[in-house]
Amino acid sequence: MLVLGMGGMYGFPFLIYGYVPVKRIQPIPVVFTEMPLYFGYSLNKIGENTNNKFLSIGYPMFFYTLQLSFIPLIFDWKHLILRFLSFLPLMIVLGIIFYKKRKLVSFMIGHSILDLATGAQIVMTSISPAIFEMMKNMSSKM
User: Fold this and answer.
1) What pLDDT does 24 receive?
2) Cα–Cα dist 34/61, whole Å
């Protein structure tokens, strides 16, 4: 989860922008209902109603990835595409794993860890604007 998530979040920006834009690091709402909605409910119900494994994994994962593309909301098509592409590999792998294992609690724990890491980064840059400026300067030099 960490390798695919972080790899996508830092790999695709280099492909699209040539650097990692700092504007991607902004406060986001912590919502724990998305995991049960996409994995627990949608994936299961689509599977029950269609008996189609690919549709039951693909449909919720596409919309979960699409949702994550708009957090934070920045009206820049490159940013939206990079957010979508950054999360897509992770969502596909998580969808396949959940389809096989059906263990929602471990997914929610992983999501919470990523939220805490994001929160820690936001707190650090909020407490010390110099850290934010340093990150901004580093990204603009790349």
Assistant:
1) 57
2) 11
Residue with tokens 């950054």: 86
Give CA–CA dist 21/75, Å, rounded: 14
Q: What is the pLDDT of residues 9-31, one digit of tens each?
A: 888 888 888 887 766 555 545 44
Alpha-carbon distance of 16 to 22, in angstroms, equals 14
Query: What is the domain extent for residue 78?
Result: 2-22+29-141
| pTM across the whole model | 0.67
Tell me which residue has tokens 């494994």: 53
The confidence score (pLDDT) of residue 85 equals 95
Specify the number of domains making up the chain: 1
Report which of 27, 34, 41, 94 is spatially closest to residue 64, judged by C-alpha positions.
34
